[in-house]
Amino acid sequence: MFLSIKNSVPMSVWYMLLSALGFSLMAACVKEVSGLGIPVLEIVAARAVISGFISYADIKRKKIPVWGHNKKLLIARGAVGSFALMFVYYAVTTLPLAEATLLQYLHPVFTAILALFFLKEAIQRSTVTCILLSLLGLFIIIYPNLAYQGIAQDGLTQSSLPLDNAIQYSWLSLGAGVLGAFGSALAYVIVKRLTLTDDSSVIIFYFPVIAFPVSMLMLGSDFVMPTATATVLLVLVGIFTQVGQVGLTKAMHSADANKATAYSYVQVLFSVIIGWAYFSEVPMLTTIIGGAFIMLGALINVFWKR
Fold first, then answer.
1. pLDDT tens for residues 175-222?
2. Mean pLDDT of the region 126-141
3. C-alpha count within 13 angstroms, C-beta hemisphere, residue 118
4. What is the pLDDT of residue 105?
5. What is the mean pLDDT of the chain?
6. Phi-psi region of 37 (alpha: psi -120 to 50; beta: other; left: phi over 0)
7. Is the pLDDT of residue 7 over 70?
8. In Å, what is the CA distance from 288 to each residue of 225, 268, 283, 293, 295?
9. CB–CB of 224/216 below 8 Å?
């Protein structure tokens, strides 16, 4: 039975599911190691070290120039990717996994807008629909914060909030999640330009080249010597990241990549399951409804373009 299911599903879909699982486990490890007292900037630096070794080895295997051709844009990609990752990791460590992952999936909205200005790509009706639904979903997710703020201004108690079991999240954490999505979109637009001049391994290599010194400089004296458990988790962050990137790359290089793209959003489901099973996080009603709008907008954008 398993073989029949495996053969009936395209390999690109399996690769995309593997990628989604890899990124979900990466986020879980980031959240767990942060709970052991390791600062976010130190986690970014650790991931940069692992990513640097892997990407450098791949460049040597391909026998191509290490520093690439369009150096200014490569440096920009590394810088944007570094700060985007800092925001994403901060959101992951301070928000439930489901909420942090959903905020990251706002990136198609920013990608479409940035591509309009920098790549001169027209925004289709499907993309407009995606943007509107995603913004509506974001509003619903942050509604408890807005409701709490209104209650505070009116001098009422939290019991006046018109939602059961609602939780107020830090505006800093929500902002970091949105900025992480924006940074990811900006990095994507830059990468799309760089694919015309440079190999993918060189593009990836510039992330650790920039991320490690920047994160260590910003970390300063806050460095924490990791325990054995924390060290294992930091290594797993790098490994699961690589699994996610390899799965994504394999899926995109397959003949039916468009079909596989929609399956990347199963990462949200993985994050909900991991958050519930391991971190005892139960998504709020606003998260479920808002997330549904974000996912619907993203899927409409994917299938409409197909």
1. 999 999 999 889 888 888 888 888 888 888 998 999 999 999 999 889
2. 83
3. 16
4. 80
5. 82
6. left
7. no
8. 38, 11, 7, 9, 10
9. no
Task: Write down the pLDDT at residue 91.
Answer: 94
**Cα 258–97–248 angle (5° rounding)?**
25
242's tokens = 């690589």
**Residue type present at position 11:** M
Give me Rg for the CA atoms of the chain. 20
The whole-angstrom separation of Cα 112 and Cα 124 is 9
* Gap between the Cα atoms of 182 and 298, Å rounded: 15
d(CA 51, CA 47): 6
Locate 181 and state its tokens: 């999505």
- pTM summary value: 0.83
